Amino acid sequence: MPEPQSFPLGRLRWPVQIVQRVQVPDPNSTSVVETPMPVATVRADVQPVGALTFWGAAGGNEQVDTPITHRIFMRWQNSLPNAYAITRSTLLPDGTTRTETFRVRRIREIDGRKRFVIVECEEEKNV
């Protein structure tokens, strides 16, 4: 898929939260407790990648090393390291909330103007 030269703002319809993963030792065991700390809430367009994109990207070897399941389009973020995650909460018809967590893998800027970015992510949790 060619890179868009412009990005329609109307596509940024999902409120997502950028969270930083903070890991601290568990005082009761030898494990690590991970706590998400909210950094920002922004509007984004969350798109799953297709099977051809998933298996055919970069000759196949890029997806094996760091799989990408979703692309998230949002306004420019100065710093979004791969220690961060993006969460999206959706209210379902039965009144429950589904929360999806996406691990940031790579960031690409759209059109080289520092206005929008494509965040390539791997879906971690769908609760």
TrEMBL record:
InterPro entries noted in UniProt: Phage_SPP1_head-tail_adaptor, SSP1_head-tail_sf
Pfam families assigned: Phage_HCP (PF05521)
Name this polypeptide is given: Head-tail adaptor protein
Organism: Novacetimonas maltaceti
